[in-house]
Design brief:
heterotrimer, A alpha/beta (338), B alpha+beta (364), C alpha/beta (164), A: 338 residues, 5-stranded mixed beta sheet, 3-stranded antiparallel beta sheet, B: 364 residues, alpha+beta, 9-stranded mixed beta sheet, 4-stranded antiparallel beta sheet, 13 strands, 24% strand, globular
Chain lengths: 338, 364, 164
């Protein structure tokens, strides 16, 4: 309804957006489908756009609101479409493609990765929390900040306060790990870098009882909608998930905090050593449950034990698919002399 | 000649709810301060961490109060006979044997008119016709729905387009208008539960004459809200839309285009006030178990998966097409009311930004 | 004649039922005081045979353990352990062949990596990582099995007393 017009949302005309459009037009003859971002009728959001005709390329946008990870569609579309698919990716999203290729879930020549340099993305949930609700009618965003028009009053916000958590520890914003085409961004993120996994170390220092009651209260809101599983680029099992089977029954269909937590355990161990921490699962959760904490905890342990980061190399073998005769970092318990 | 109205002052609201809480189960919209989500909770949750919020739309609908997400149907037990070890008897324990002696009627305060239309849709499925659900009727019987007309219209509210309105109290028992310092009762049902409720709590209400200034203010409030809501989508002709949906059923290309983004999760289904699909499961541990009913979602791959392995709706566009037809076509043909109440919760919660208005527009 | 047989049968059954019930009650009563529930996943070729040899050598072991036999420690999905905890187990142990001696050559190498990750992860969801342990017990090490299971049960009982 309002998607065809460019809504009051995106007045930010940027150099990178025009360079991106040019690149896609250049490559379009070899591609059967291009997945990119477009404006949305909802304020502060962008939608995925599926381009099959050259005339649709003009609807593409690229700005600080592009938080979605379009690699979520890579696996399923690559099985549906016969020809080559082009996907617009930020450097963090390209890590998901790398992980998919290294696990041979998609083939390297099926996807044309068009990676753009990134100047950080806004987490709209932080803005909603700041203004206390979802009353935003329209948003104007440019280098000076965000101007929000809401139902009761208007706001003028500083971009810097609302970047997504993942942007603070990003080191690849202008130097992606993998790309078929790279488009440099004239802008750079404007934020204080934070050391990775600092929040996880803080979380680990809390007592066990506190952690248990924290998760109990968070998962009491889980309604088992499976949005977290379905949006993840690496959870390609969504039509065959063990959590929905009756025989063998891993998980009850009853909805309560314990079952919600167990479903996350299934996800954590399915993604151990594979999660690239894009944060989409937490963004899409309707109940605002902090899911990335659990994924980051496992990734931190795997980094410490095996020195492996998912999504950085196509050829390196994932740690859980291989082994060493003598593991330097694993100190086993000796129960005999306790 | 002056009209008589009943008003409820804001300062009397909490005492009224607390007194009602003794004889009824009271539910009201509270905002969780930790994450900002507004939802319906029982009265006992109201505290400094959960504050009353009557303006915001709740994240999910209130159908979980009458139609819980998981509900036990009965317990069963396998009993083995020592005399005949190859035979096993099943003993059923009906839930109502051991239940709710102190079952209280429910009062839902702070609903919006779209929510009450949703509850009406649930009534038509579970409470009427020749297949009634006794568990639903037990919860719904005698319950009082108190709704407040919307003065805040969100960009994704479109009740006017589907036959509702921000001040439509047709499906509420008591309809209030919020005039700042006090509420005015604009509608009161003529049944005995409402009369009893008002009589028990009559010292919180005041009756007086309606002044002309007040009357204009109320009319202004209503017309403002209706006008703002009308801008969000044009009116849908209920009689025609179901025929249009039938005609466009085979238009595979457009259906694939509009559902390209969908990731087939359950977010829109579980927050919708009128989605009623459920599944029944049996769970067994050792020799005893229970049978329960739980919400199901039609966008799921497993929804139509047959025991043979064949799946008639194996692709996402087929499942989403079924969902839209269910709302704008099949249920309309059955119950003569559109099963979309225009609350906009699906638009708000969708992870990829699918807007049901855009989907229906693609076929108009 | 026939009546006599039926009467006899009924009498025997009555006594049998009573005896069984009595024993169950006694077991429950003594078990209530100090009851912990420990689940042990043992690999078929080494650890299960080791536990067996501990039994045949009459070495005294705690009764709180429920043993589940798997073909190899590499068969263990970390979710087995998490499901055991969510169903109420107080402690879980996994035991397999010594590294380099796996009956299937490599199963326990993979198991070691997976189970170490699980062990580090448990505190993040509120379970003490001391409640889960993985050991290597071979088929001839009956005494080692006795020590391992006794020490683990003692550890779990102490943890229970601390009320975590």
């Amino acid at each position: 309804m309002k998607e065809k017009e460019n809504p009051a949302n995106m007045k930010q005309k940027s150099i990178i957006e025009s360079k991106l459009k040019e690149k896609i037009i250049e490559k379009f003859d070899n591609l059967e489908l291009v997945i990119a971002y477009s404006g949305s009728s909802k304020a502060l959001r962008v939608n995925p756009l599926f381009i099959e005709k050259e005339s649709d390329i003009d609807n593409i946008v690229f700005n600080n609101l592009c938080v979605n990870n379009l690699a979520a569609y890579a696996y399923f579309k690559s099985r549906e479409i016969k020809g080559k698919i082009g996907i617009v990716l930020k450097p963090c999203d390209a890590k998901s493609i790398v992980q998919l290729i290294s696990e041979q879930l998609i083939s390297r020549d099926k996807i044309l990765s068009i990676v753009t340099g990134c100047s950080g993305v806004i987490d709209y949930k932080k803005i909603y929390k700041f203004i206390g609700g979802l009353k935003v009618i329209s948003a104007d965003i440019d280098d000076t900040g965000i101007r929000l028009k809401t139902i009761d009053k208007d706001y003028n916000l500083n971009l810097n306060d609302f970047y997504a958590d993942k942007c603070y520890s990003c080191k690849i914003y202008d130097n992606p790990v993998y790309s078929d085409e790279f488009i440099e961004n004239d802008k750079k993120p404007n934020l204080e870098p934070v050391e990775e996994y600092v929040d996880i170390e803080e979380f680990e220092r809390l007592g066990l009882k506190e952690i248990e009651s924290y998760w109990k209260s968070e998962f009491s809101r889980c309604i088992r909608c499976y949005a977290c599983r379905n949006i993840c680029p690496l959870e390609v099992c969504r039509d065959r998930c063990i959590a929905q089977l009756e025989s063998p029954q891993w998980q009850s269909q009853k909805i309560n905090a314990a079952e919600g937590k167990f479903f996350q355990m299934i996800r954590v161990f399915h993604l151990a050593g594979r999660c690239t921490e894009c944060g989409e699962c937490e963004r899409v959760c309707p109940a605002n449950i902090p899911l990335v904490k659990l994924m980051k905890k496992v990734n931190k342990d795997i980094l410490k034990l095996f020195g492996y980061r998912p999504g950085y190399s196509i050829d390196e073998k994932p740690p859980l698919l291989t082994f060493k005769n003598i593991e330097e970092n694993i100190k086993e318990e000796n129960l005999v002399n306790e | 000649m002056n009209k008589l109205i009943t008003i409820l002052r804001k300062e009397n609201l909490k005492p009224l709810l607390e007194k009602a809480g003794k004889n009824y189960d009271v539910y009201l919209p509270l905002q969780d301060k930790k994450n900002g989500i507004v939802d319906f909770y029982e009265l006992s949750y109201m505290s400094e961490n959960y504050i009353l919020n009557l303006e915001e739309k709740t994240r999910r609908s209130q159908k979980f109060i009458f139609f819980p997400q998981t509900e036990k149907i009965f317990d069963f037990e396998y009993i083995k006979d020592l005399q005949k070890p190859d035979k096993v008897q099943i003993k059923l324990k009906d839930k109502t044997e051991s239940s709710e002696k102190d079952f209280k009627k429910k009062v839902l305060f702070g609903l919006k008119p779209c929510d009450t239309a949703g509850i009406k849709c649930l009534d038509l499925v579970f409470g009427e016709g020749d297949k009634k659900d006794p568990a639903y009727i037990q919860k719904r019987a005698g319950s009082i729905l108190i709704s407040i007309g919307c003065s805040m219209i969100y960009p994704d509210c479109f009740c006017m387009a589907v036959g509702g309105s921000p001040f439509n109290f047709e499906f509420s028992d008591i309809g209030l208008a919020n005039l700042g310092a006090y509420f005015v009762i604009l509608k009161k049902s003529e049944n005995k539960e409402v009369a009893e409720f008002i009589k028990e709590n009559k010292n919180f209400f005041e009756e007086r004459d309606l002044s002309t200034a007040e009357e204009t203010k109320i009319k202004q409030l209503i017309s403002n809200s209706e006008e703002k809501c009308r801008l969000n989508w044009k009116e849908i002709d209920a009689d025609k839309i179901n025929l249009i949906m039938d005609k466009n059923f085979k238009d595979e290309k457009t259906w694939r285009e509009v559902t390209n983004k969908c990731i087939s999760c359950a977010a829109c289904t579980y927050v919708c006030p009128t989605c009623v699909c459920f599944s029944i499961g049996d769970e067994l541990r050792d020799m005893s178990g229970e049978r329960y009913k739980c919400w199901d979602f039609c966008t799921n791959y497993y929804y139509t998966l047959e025991a043979s392995g064949h799946n008639p709706r194996s692709e996402i566009y087929q499942r989403y097409r079924n969902k839209i037809n269910c709302k704008y076509n099949y249920f309309y043909k059955r119950n003569k009311i559109l099963y979309c109440v225009g609350c906009g919760r699906c638009v708000d919660v969708c992870p990829v930004g699918i807007d049901i208005r855009e989907v229906v527009e693609a076929f108009l | 004649m026939e009546n006599n047989i039926d009467a006899e049968r009924a009498k025997v059954e009555k006594v049998m039922n009573e005896k069984v019930i009595d024993e169950n009650i006694m077991n429950e009563v003594s078990a209530q005081k100090d009851k912990v529930r420990i689940v042990a996943f043992l690999c078929n070729w080494c650890s299960y045979a080791g536990a067996d040899s501990a039994g045949t050598s009459r070495l005294r072991q705690p009764e709180d353990v429920r043993i589940i036999r798997v073909p190899c420690s590499g068969r263990i999905n970390p979710l087995f352990i998490l499901k055991a905890f969510s169903l109420g187990a107080d402690g879980v142990m996994v035991s397999g062949c010594h590294p380099n001696d796996c009956h299937y050559s490599e199963g326990n190498f993979y198991a070691r990596r997976r189970l170490e990750i699980l062990k580090e992860f448990l505190p993040a969801i509120g379970i003490d990582s001391k409640r889960f342990v993985y050991q290597w017990v071979s088929a001839s090490e009956g005494q080692k099995w006795q020590k391992v299971i006794t020490n683990f049960t003692k550890r779990i009982k102490n943890l229970k007393v601390e009320g975590i």
